[in-house]
């Protein structure tokens, strides 16, 4: 019997790995892209990569579509919004005077003597529909985002979600992206699914990590980096998912280093690897390339290759057996 986890089908050899950070801007996407790039020359690995940072997906910038390949786009409709039906309105202004809308999404149009729905502010709660005596509001699903699927220029399929401005269902879109991935052609042949997760600890992160086999939590030795790492680890521990930490810019000269090191030593958390501060990374980014491709012998690339090998050992020989 086939087992599904969080929208991803599992079998004995398949592993799903999420890369999260708690804090944005610590190198999550560039690490995901580099790890993906390393899979392409690894005969043991057949990978796909997902970008579940659906509010700001940018993995596609580093892993663009292979020329002549088709890009598949699927619209998603999960967000609820109010629609005003002018014909039914008797202009009583009750919806405004009695503050039907807790989200301040109803404004009064003085000229036409009708309410206006502010699309971005509307949460689709349905209160206006229930309270208007003339039934002048309906609640409808509207386009909330897109899922995009293509073969990237390194030969690895990429699937990502993109929320529409004003959408309130980022977490649902993450689940949809994972579900969609589990149904692509030849999914059974892929043994590694890498997922670039969203920053933070909210609904999209929870939707990303649920059902995964392993989490990489990337951070940097700064006060905000540590603060947000702790929060991200709390989420992962709720799900009892094994995790490893990657310390980016581990050699950053900072008065906070001692405190950071003490935290890591005291917790005994598994350190998957340390990436040094290396200008090769921003240089590679300026060419929209992964550092392992653009500067394969750089200090950062060598560190990421070590992380990749450590990850493989953990995935197939250790914690997830
Ligand atoms: S929408 Fe309903 S409550 Fe608001 S003015 Fe029209 S009839 Fe009155
Ligand atoms: S559905 Fe809810 S949030 Fe939207 S306008 Fe109506 S009351 Fe406001």
Indicate the topology.
Elements: E1 3-5, E2 8-10, E3 15-20, H1 28-39, E4 47-51, H2 59-62, E5 72-76, E6 79-84, H3 94-97, E7 106-109, E8 114-117, H4 127-131, E9 137-142, E10 145-151, E11 157-163, H5 170-181, E12 192-196, H6 203-209, E13 214-219, H7 223-238, E14 243-248, H8 257-267, E15 271-275, H9 280-286, H10 291-294, H11 299-317
Parallel strand pairs: 3-12, 3-13, 4-11, 4-12, 13-14, 14-15
Antiparallel strand pairs: 1-2, 5-10, 6-9, 7-8, 10-11
The structure holds iron/sulfur cluster (2 copies).
Residues 82, 100-101, 103, 105-106, 117, 122-128, 139 line the site of one iron/sulfur cluster.
Coarse morphology: elongated
Strand residue content: 15-25%
Mean pLDDT: 91
Number of domains: 2
Strand order within the widest sheet?
A: 5-10-11-4-12-3-13-14-15
Order of helices and strands: EEEHEHEEHEEHEEEHEHEHEHEHHH
Q: Give the termini separation.
A: 19 Å
Give the CATH superfamily of the largest domain.
P-loop containing nucleotide triphosphate hydrolases
Radius of gyration: 23 Å
Keywords:
single chain; 321 residues; alpha/beta; Alpha-Beta Plaits; 2 domains; two-stranded antiparallel ribbon; 31% helix; 24% strand; elongated; binds iron/sulfur cluster
Description of the molecule:
This protein has 321 residues and is of the alpha/beta class. The protein has 2 domains: 8-76 and 145-317, Rossmann fold, CATH 3.40.50.300; 79-142, Alpha-Beta Plaits (2-Layer Sandwich). It has helices at 28-39, 59-62, 94-97, 127-131, 170-181, 203-209, 223-238, 257-267, 280-286, 291-294, 299-317; strands spanning 3-5, 8-10, 15-20, 47-51, 72-76, 79-84, 106-109, 114-117, 137-142, 145-151, 157-163, 192-196, 214-219, 243-248, 271-275. The model has no long low-confidence stretch (mean pLDDT 91). Bound molecules: iron/sulfur cluster (2 copies). One iron/sulfur cluster (SF4) binds at residues 89-95, 115, 132, 134, 136. One iron/sulfur cluster (SF4) is lined by residues 89-95, 115, 132, 134, 136.
């Amino acid at each position: 019997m086939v087992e599904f986890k969080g929208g991803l089908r599992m079998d004995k050899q398949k592993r799903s790995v999420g890369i999260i950070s708690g804090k944005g801007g610590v190198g999550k996407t560039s690490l995901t892209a580099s790890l993906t790039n390393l899979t392409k020359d690894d005969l043991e690995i057949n990978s796909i990569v997902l970008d579940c940072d659906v509010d700001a997906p940018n993995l596609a910038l580093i892993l663009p579509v292979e020329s002549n390949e088709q890009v598949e786009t699927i619209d998603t409709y999960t967000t609820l919004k109010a629609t005003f039906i002018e014909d039914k309105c008797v202009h009583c202004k009750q919806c405004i005077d009695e503050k039907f809308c807790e989200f301040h999404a109803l404004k009064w149009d003085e000229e036409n003597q009708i309410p206006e729905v502010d699309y971005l502010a509307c949460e689709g709660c349905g209160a206006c529909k229930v309270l208007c005596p003339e039934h002048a509001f309906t609640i409808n699903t509207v386009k909330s985002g897109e899922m995009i699927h293509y073969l990237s220029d390194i030969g690895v399929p990429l699937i990502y979600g993109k929320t529409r401005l004003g959408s309130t269902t980022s977490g649902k879109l993450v689940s949809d992206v994972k579900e969609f991935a589990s149904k692509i052609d030849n999914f059974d042949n892929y043994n590694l699914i890498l997922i670039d997760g969203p920053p933070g600890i909210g609904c999209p992160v929870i939707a990303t990590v649920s059902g995964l086999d392993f989490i990489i939590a990337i951070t940097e030795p700064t006060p905000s980096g540590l603060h947000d790492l702790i929060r991200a680890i709390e989420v992962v521990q709720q799900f009892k998912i094994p995790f490893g930490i990657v310390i980016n810019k581990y050699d950053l000269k900072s008065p906070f280093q001692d405190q950071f090191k003490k935290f890591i030593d005291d917790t005994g958390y598994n350190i998957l690897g340390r990436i040094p501060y290396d200008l090769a990374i921003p240089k590679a980014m300026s060419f929209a390339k992964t550092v392992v491709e653009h500067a394969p012998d750089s200090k950062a690339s060598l560190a990421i290759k070590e992380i990749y090998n450590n990850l493989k050992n953990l995935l197939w020989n250790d914690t997830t057996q």
